[in-house]
Amino acid sequence: MMRISHYSMVGWLLAIIGLSVLGLTGAGSEDLWHTRILAATTAVAVIALFWACRQHRLETELVRQKDATDRQNALTHERDGVTRTLTRRVFITRCGAQLKIAPASGGYALLLVDMDYLKQINDAYGHDMGDAALRHLATVARRVFPGSLIGRVGGDEFALLIECASPEAATRLAESFLIALDHTAYHAGRPLNLSASIGIAFGPGDTALFDELMQYADLALYQSKRNGRAQATLFENEMLRDQKHTRYIERELRAAILLNELELAYQPIVTAEGKLHGCEALVRWRHPSRGIIPPVDFIPIAEQSLLIDLLGEWVFRRACRDGVETDRLSIGVNFSASQLKRDDVVTMVERVLAETGMPARRIVIEITESVAMNANDGVIRRLAALRALGLRISLDDFGTGYSGFSYLRAFPIDSIKIDRSFVVKLGDSEADNVLITALASVANAMGLAIVAEGVETAEQMLLASTAGCKLLQGYYFARPQPWSDIQAMLDRGGPVRIRTTEAA
């Protein structure tokens, strides 16, 4: 059926009205009935005309609203709902097109910007605060890089394509962005203290292809995170050579943790008489094809890739499961600076202690002196919370920082471990003899237990104990060994003098 347009209908109605009017003017008095018929027809035509016009206006408005909705939907699909930056898909498409155009300023730089600790902001203050932080970062980016393409390419990750003259110029701009981001902003009366890590790739110097620029910027971003975050790193070719090894270790370590393929070895801590006092848990990785991978090769990668939390929880749980089998031994477990930066470390410890039944008083959390020296209020608060649970805190590698002793007063610790670099020189250097004696005197005066690490000879044992070190650890007594050997040592009850072939 043919659809009649509003305009055709209006034309016909006007014709009817016209004929009706003519009929009315030509009617005689004797033809009153016919006149009334024409009048009624006219009225109907007028009503229909008004109805048609009204319908036309309604349909026109609906079309207008649909067009507006379509435009809004198109905009929504192009823009991130929180930050109003480009979506990942649109950003990638526009960058690909932009890179085909010769830049007026010399080149293009792709910046990958990762907001530091967004998860912690969300956990501590809620997602509304996290969204405000993301919006603030986007606002600062628009101000520092006006006219540049800006896209949100991940939950806490943004990408920018900017024109600049050189890689050095791109680095300066990135650093100015970090400075601007560091200025405190506020949301709902709460301060927003933000930082970000940035990776930079330059084209056409590095490459003019977007996919490669993205890969190179990602490698540079990874390096920024490895170096401590809150910094900008420019891509270098060496990063490609390190990438395969790092990514391989990262992938394999994650699998080893999840598949329970790691091991713990325990090195005894003894009294000056050689009696077993405690032990330190040390993680070992026996890879199915590569054999033993030293901790120095995988722990830094775990810290850089954020696998350290997963690894740390595995080590702590295994140490608790082993240690609960006896009630006569304290076990030291190493905690990294990365673990102590997050509040959930306290929750993790509480959960594992409850799961395993391990008494908190028999766990010693070992942290390095560098962690203590660089600890912020948050780290000190978390250590105090762990200590409040009943755990003890030990300061490892003491003396390597060459710092004063003033921070020991305020720091929540129970013992210190003198670094082996001093112990191995006992007997050879009078200065080291005096230094260890002084360290031991300070520790004892503060009520702290003191452990001498790295004791390898009978002479070192004698000198360390004479200097005031009441506890000792080193190859002279025992190398790191399986938990079954520690249990046998406890059952034997005699002095510790065990040698094993396993390397430390």
Short description:
The chain is α/β, with parallel strands linked by helices. The protein folds into three domains: 6-78; 88-236, Alpha-Beta Plaits; 257-492, TIM Barrel (Alpha-Beta Barrel), CATH 3.20.20.450.
Walk me through this protein's architecture.
The chain is an alpha/beta fold. It has three domains: 6-78; 88-236, Alpha-Beta Plaits (2-Layer Sandwich), CATH 3.30.70; 257-492, EAL domain (TIM Barrel, Alpha-Beta Barrel), CATH 3.20.20.450. It is elongated, with a radius of gyration of 37 Å. Mean pLDDT is 82; it is low at 69-75 and 498-504. The protein has an eight-stranded mixed barrel with strand order 8-9-11-12-13-14-15-16, surrounded by six helices. A five-stranded mixed beta sheet has the order 2-3-1-6-7, with helices on both faces. The protein is built from 19 helices and 16 strands.
CATH superfamily of the largest domain, by name, is EAL domain
CATH hierarchy, class of the largest domain: Alpha Beta
| CATH-derived topology of the largest domain | TIM Barrel
Radius of gyration: 37 Å
What percentage of amino acids are in beta strands? 15-25%
The main pleated sheet reads as: 8 strands, mixed, barrel
Write down the domain tally. 3
Unreliable runs: 69-75, 498-504
Q: What's the pLDDT, averaged over the residues?
A: 82
How many beta-strand segments?
16
Secondary structure tally, helices? 19
Beginning-to-end CA distance, first to last residue: 91 Å
> How much helicity do the residues have?
40-55%
Class of secondary structure makeup: alpha/beta
Q: Which outline best applies?
A: elongated
As laid out across the biggest beta sheet, the strand order is: 8-9-11-12-13-14-15-16
CATH architecture assignment of the largest domain? Alpha-Beta Barrel
